[in-house]
């Protein structure tokens, strides 16, 4: 099973999110994998984080984290 085989997950913030931020994601770091580019993102407004996979080709980005990771 690869990350692309995982069931789709909503890219919307979790209903348990601490805030009602409309996230503006900025890439903190990224690296390539055999499946595409793995990107570590941080919201410029609230500092929440998430991870997404951008597959090779024209496929859309796939969230890897189940929900946004709240800031510390």
TrEMBL record:
It comes from the Bacteria. This is Zinc-finger.
């Amino acid at each position: 099973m690869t990350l692309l085989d995982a069931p789709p997950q909503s890219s919307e913030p979790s209903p348990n999110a601490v805030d009602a931020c409309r996230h503006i994601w900025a890439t903190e770091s990224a690296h390539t994998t055999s499946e595409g580019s793995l990107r570590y993102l941080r919201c410029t407004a609230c500092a929440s984080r998430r991870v997404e996979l951008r597959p090779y080709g024209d496929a859309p980005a796939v969230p890897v984290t189940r929900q946004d990771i709240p800031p510390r």
